[in-house]
Amino acid sequence: MLCALALLSAIAPLATDMYLPGLPVMAESLGSSTVGVQLTLTTFMAGLGLGQLLVGPLSDGWGRRRLILAGTIVLAVSSAICAMAPTVEILIAARLVQGFSGGTGIVLARAVIADRARGNQAAKLFSLMMIIGGIAPVAAPLLGGVLLGPIGWRGIFWVLTGLAVLMAVGAFAFVPETLPPEKRHGGGLKTMAGNFGYVLRQRRFVGYAAAMALGFGAMFSYISASPFVTQNILGLSPGQFSLVFAVNSAGLVLANAVNTRLIGRFEVRTLLLFGVTTMFTAGALLLLTMVVVGYVAALILPLLFVAISMMGLTLGNATALAQSQVPKAAGTGSAVIGASQFGLAAVVSPLVGLGGEGTGIPMAVAIVVCSGLALTSAAVLARDSAAVLARDSAAVPARDSAAVPARESAS
């Protein structure tokens, strides 16, 4: 089941990293500007956020499995439309739908794990899922770079269509229903609003969710800008860019693997704080290098490697800590995490391109700002949570009411 959940969560790196090497070619093919093709990233991320925001709360009332199956089917159809899009405007619209449907798998994969595990066990499962799913960001840019020449960017979207079909088959065969009927609510806007209110009143949840979203925003500023920084400024070829991107992704996977071994020896919160602190430090050095020294690949690429690798100590740990604060509304909590994560990514994507193709400073600034705010959220807003996490992990009461009463949020 864990492999199937990882595949469902892999839609974000697959649908972004595979076609990243082709962004400059796509702009020329569709007669669009750099900002225009970057909007295909923006709308995809916005769709991911909106999809999670809707599907997560719905799954608390309807269950997880049937929504996963419906989402993967729509994902396959929208991916095919992307492959056939005649204009950048149609591609942007299709990417919105692709993101919306892809958000189903991401939000419900987290909810399924939250249904089954708590505390350190949940942190390990999230990290293991990201290790398995980490094959996607390692393989996707390499595969995209190899396929771009023979089949073009449209062919890459046809490959994504086939992968979406594979996700649907995997979900049907291996992902059971994890939310029994007695733990579901009756649905309705009032109930959904009550669950959102419950989740957002948990200060520690908000702190960890913000740390996760901001950390991802730092990474996505790199994802969005790196094709232009590495190829147009550092002079790398599309194939070399794909290799650099894969190496950075491999660093993220390795950090996740190390994280699973350290959980239990160190508090999950401690590992998270180390990750975001290191990311912030690497980002600050990156910005300083660009401003003072210039665009020296031998300095810039190692700093990017360190900054991106530290996401392996950030994503899984922040997600587990956040979800542990809202066990009575796992789907809604997962929706808030996902919506903030990809919503912020959608904002960051066009901002890092405002300086044009001749500068990487906006990317470096975004990494510094996002990682600095992530550190602040984890260290200050979610402080003193170790004892609370242990208490919440030890006793998770059953959910008896349609919505979570307001008094339960005052823990």
In brief:
This protein is mostly helical and 411 residues long. It has helices spanning 2-9, 11-17, 23-29, 34-62, 65-84, 88-116, 119-133, 135-174, 189-200, 203-233, 238-262, 268-293, 297-309, 315-324, 330-351, 361-381, 386-394.
What would you say this structure looks like, in words?
It contains 17 helices and no strands. Residues 385-411 have low confidence and may be disordered. The chain is mainly α.
Percentage of residues assigned to helices? over 70%
- Please state the structural category: mainly alpha
Individual helix count: 17
- Return the average pLDDT rounded to an integer: 81
The coarse silhouette is: globular
User: Helix and strand succession?
Assistant: HHHHHHHHHHHHHHHHH
Identify low-pLDDT runs: 385-411
- Overall number of strands: 0
How far apart, in Å, are the first and last alpha carbons? 33 Å
**What portion of residues belong to β-strands?**
under 5%
Radius of gyration equals 20 Å
How many strands, which pairing sense, and closed or not: the largest β-sheet? none
Record keyword descriptors for this entry.
17 helices, about 400 residues, about 80% helix, globular, mainly alpha
Write the layout of secondary structure elements.
Elements: H1 2-9, H2 11-17, H3 23-29, H4 34-62, H5 65-84, H6 88-116, H7 119-133, H8 135-174, H9 189-200, H10 203-233, H11 238-262, H12 268-293, H13 297-309, H14 315-324, H15 330-351, H16 361-381, H17 386-394
Helix pairs in contact: 1-6, 1-7, 1-8, 2-8, 3-4, 4-6, 4-15, 5-6, 5-8, 6-15, 7-11, 7-14, 8-11, 10-13, 10-14, 10-15, 10-16, 11-13, 12-13, 12-14, 12-16
